[in-house]
Specification:
Length: 328
C-alpha cells in the first residue's frame, strides 16, 4: 500500500499449521510423503512449486530433496490443501535402511505466507527381503559321491554368503558355503557320508544391512546304501564223509562289514553250517565236515552290520559237491 512517500509491504499470514505424513517403504522401492497446509484464514494455499520437503534430524539442518506444488484435494465448502512427493529408498536422500525425519517448508503465495512444519514425520526404510531356494540337485545321490546343488538368491547381485546344510536324525551339518554369485545362482557341493533320508536347506546372509537373510524350504534327499552281493567260491566237485571241506564265500565290496552264513542242502533239507562267519577283506570261510554221503548244494547269505551297506544278500551261484562214503 502507498501513503504519500511511504511504501509498506504487507506479508500475508503464515499457515496456521503444516502437518507432514511420513511413510514406511522397503529398500529399493518407492513411497510417498505428504504435507497438509492449513491457511490462517480462508485464503487459498494452492500454488505451483511452493512446497519443499526436507530430510534431517532438525528443521534447521534438514536438506531439501523435493519441491512440489500444493493443490486443493477437498471440496469448495471444505478445502484441503496438500502436496506430496515420491521418494525412493536407496536413493540419495534415503540411502539405506533406517529411520529418517522429514519436514515440510511452505514457500508461500500471494494469499498465504511462508512457514515450516512444527514437527517432523518419520520415513522408515525397512531392509529388503531376500529368498534362497534350492532350485536343482540330485534327490537320490550316490553314497560317498559329490553332487551339485544350485541355490538361487532373489534379488540377484546382492553380496553375501550362501550356505548348504544337510540334516539327518535331527542333526544339522553345514556341508558347503561360498560367496553369492552376481547372477543370483550359486552351485554348492555335498558328498553324502551315510545312507538315509536327508533334508537339505540353504541359507543366504547378505553383507549389507539393507537386505534380510533367508533360509530355503526343505529339499528332501534319499541316499541308498551300497549294494552288496555274496557269492560262494568254487569247491572241489567231490568229497568224502568225515573229511573236512573248507567253505569260502565273498562279498562284492571288500569294505562291507558284517557276517556270512553258510548253508548245505541235501534231499530238500537245508542246514546252517556252524556260527556266523566274520569277514576278512570281504571273504569269509568256515570248515564243514559232512557225515552223510550224497549231493549237496552249498549256499551263503550276507548280513550287513552297517546301514551304509545293503542287508540280507543271498548267493545266486550255489556250488554243488558230491560226498561219498570212504572205500571199505
Amino acid at each position: 500500500a502507498n501513503s504519500g512517500d511511504v511504501n509498506a509491504i504487507v506479508t500475508p499470514p503464515a499457515p496456521s499449521s503444516i502437518v507432514v505424513t511420513g511413510a514406511s517403504i522397503v529398500y529399493q522401492s518407492s513411497g510417498t510423503v505428504s504435507a497438509k497446509i492449513t491457511p490462517f484464514d480462508s485464503a487459498s494455499a494452492a500454488c505451483t512449486n511452493c512446497l519443499q520437503f526436507k530430510v534431517g534430524s532438525t528443521y534447521a539442518t534438514a536438506t531439501a530433496f523435493a519441491t512440489v506444488s500444493v493443490s486443493d484435494v477437498g471440496t469448495p465448502s471444505a478445502p484441503d490443501y496438500q502436496g506430496s512427493a515420491s521418494i525412493t529408498a536407496g536413493g540419495t536422500s534415503f540411502g539405506s535402511a533406517g529411520d529418517y525425519q522429514v519436514w515440510a517448508e511452505y514457500l508461500g503465495n500471494a494469499n498465504v505466507g511462508p512457514g515450516g512444519s512444527a514437527a517432523s514425520a518419520t520415513v522408515t526404510v525397512t531392509p529388503r527381503p531376500t529368498t534362497a531356494t534350492i532350485t536343482s540337485g540330485d534327490t537320490t545321490p550316490d553314497l560317498g559321491v559329490s553332487s551339485n546343488y544350485v541355490v538361487t538368491v532373489v534379488p540377484s547381485g546382492v553380496a553375501g554368503t550362501v550356505k548348504l546344510f544337510a540334516t539327518i536324525g535331527g542333526v544339522t551339518t553345514e556341508v558347503d558355503s561360498e560367496p553369492a554369485d552376481t547372477d543370483g545362482t550359486s552351485t554348492l557341493e555335498w558328498t553324502p557320508p551315510n545312507a538315509g533320508s536327508y533334508t537339505l536347506t540353504a541359507s543366504f546372509a547378505p553383507t549389507s544391512a539393507n537386505y534380510l537373510s533367508d533360509e530355503s524350504d526343505d529339499y528332501p534327499v534319499t541316499v541308498a546304501p551300497f549294494s552288496v552281493s555274496v557269492s560262494v567260491d568254487d569247491l572241489a566237485n567231490t568229497g568224502t564223509t568225515d573229511v573236512e571241506v573248507l567253505l569260502s564265500a565273498r562279498v562284492s565290496l571288500a569294505a562291507a562289514p558284517g557276517t556270512i552264513k553258510f548253508f548245505v542242502t541235501i534231499g530238500g533239507v537245508t542246514s546252517e553250517v556252524g556260527a556266523d562267519t566274520s569277514l576278512t577283506a570281504g571273504v569269509g570261510t568256515r570248515p564243514w565236515t559232512p557225515t552223510v554221503a550224497g549231493t549237496y548244494q552249498i549256499s551263503a547269505t550276507y548280513e550287513s552290520s552297517s546301514g551304509d551297506y545293503a542287508n540280507d544278500a543271498t548267493s545266486s551261484n550255489n556250488q554243488t559237491i558230491v560226498i561219498s562214503a570212504p572205500p571199505p
